[in-house]
Amino acid sequence: MRIDLPADKKLVHEMTIPMRWGDMDAMGHMNNTVYFRYMEIARIEWFLSLGYAADPRGQGIVVVNAFCNFIRQLEYPASVLVRTYVSNPGRSSFDTWVTMERSDQPGVPCASGGATTVWVDFPAQKSMPLPERLRTIVGG
Hints:
Elements: E1 10-18, H1 32-49, E2 59-70, E3 79-87, E4 93-102, E5 109-121, E6 126-127, H2 132-139
Antiparallel strand pairs: 1-3, 2-5, 3-4, 4-5, 5-6
């Protein structure tokens, strides 16, 4: 099953990740699990750029679901352009969306994916309303 990314989404972050030799599997292309790692790296880098560092004694985001559409194989060597988008802010959650392409082949999608993230109080293990600044970024 393929999940399409919504047209109504907001670009919030771009980064290039150099593919490592060890990211390949026995078939010579990037292992499927690594796509999820790249999405995680992009999401964390975006959050760090906003000043939200992970703190298990405080508040932050958790991923409650994630998916990836594998469109074209990524093969070493490559640098992967990862774009992160957001949409659908709720009381305590919002959706993140990601596209991946080789940086030397702009506009040719290799993968797309997404995750629903929830803002939580880590010690209480309960969802919390999104901070107003984050809600403005996601929804504005």
